[in-house]
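step=encode ok
step=design start
structure_in=
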């Protein structure tokens, strides 16, 4: 270990809900000097062997909506930094289920040595205001079309000031085998082609979180989106062409559809981060996920 690396305060880091984004983050953490151990949770018994193969300390932690009463919960939350990646399962659970899950998470954090929390939220909380939107445009559930998500943010924020809490509102998370054109190939007469996108590549999403862990988590809310916002039509046509899929067709609506352009200015003001994929028209895609 170099002298510089030896000066870095190593952190125990837990990822609650270690899925598509979490695995990409975990791989970076495992090779970074900031990390002493990476703990990863899943609700699936079958993923534990994969976690072990990757060098992660795996935990099966179902939230139904609370945690089971066992030693695994205490061991998982015996950590310095906690990343929470638990999106609500719309249509799969009754109203209020997600809120109860987050309440259980907050209770576990309060009774743990966790110092800092990063909560993965979503830019879906913003209404279409037909302008550039910032973090201050939504702070309360009544401001949002996704009220339960904002309520979850507020519950996590209630951990302040005892814990340092960052809320990260992620745009559409894409890259590798998550290819926009795949989901619209062959569709006819789409009316949303001119709407600007608010996307983030998975590599940037994971790298932003790592940057925050290394430079210091802040008691702030940040939008995590690429700087550029091309129209959906351009991205759909480009990605269909890349993979030989039938392109969708588009209507020219009489009135411009409602939209939002989500600003990442606050993120770039607080952290010296240079995007790997600033332009969603240049995202890296492939049919198979390399990890």
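sequence_out=
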């Amino acid at each position: 270990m170099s002298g510089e690396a030896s000066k870095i305060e190593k952190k125990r880091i837990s990822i609650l809900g270690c899925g598509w984004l979490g695995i990409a983050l975990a791989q970076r953490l495992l090779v970074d000097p900031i990390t002493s151990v990476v703990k990863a949770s899943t609700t699936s018994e079958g993923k534990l062997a994969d976690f072990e193969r990757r060098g992660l300390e795996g935990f099966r932690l179902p939230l139904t909506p609370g945690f089971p009463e066992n030693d695994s919960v205490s061991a998982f939350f015996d950590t310095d930094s906690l990343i929470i990646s638990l999106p609500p399962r719309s249509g799969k659970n009754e109203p209020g289920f997600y809120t109860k899950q987050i309440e259980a998470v907050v209770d576990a954090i309060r009774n743990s040595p966790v110092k800092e929390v990063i909560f993965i939220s979503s830019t879906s909380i913003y209404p279409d205001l037909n302008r550039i939107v910032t973090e201050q445009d939504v702070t309360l559930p009544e401001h949002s079309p996704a009220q339960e998500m904002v309520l979850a943010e507020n519950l996590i924020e209630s951990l302040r000031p005892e814990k340092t809490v960052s809320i990260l509102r992620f745009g559409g998370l894409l890259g590798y085998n998550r290819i926009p054109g795949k989901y619209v190939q062959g569709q006819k007469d789409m009316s949303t082609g001119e709407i600007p996108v608010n996307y983030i590549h998975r590599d940037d999403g994971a790298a932003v979180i790592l940057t925050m862990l290394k430079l210091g988590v802040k008691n702030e809310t940040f939008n995590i989106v690429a700087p550029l916002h091309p129209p959906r039509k351009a991205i759909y046509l480009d990605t269909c062409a890349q993979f030989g899929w039938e392109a969708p067709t588009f209507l020219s609506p009489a009135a411009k559809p409602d939209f939002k352009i989500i600003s990442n200015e606050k993120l770039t003001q607080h952290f010296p981060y240079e995007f790997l994929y600033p332009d969603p028209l240049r995202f890296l895609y492939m049919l198979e996920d390399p990890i």
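step=design ok
step=annotate ok -> The longest helix spans residues 97-110.
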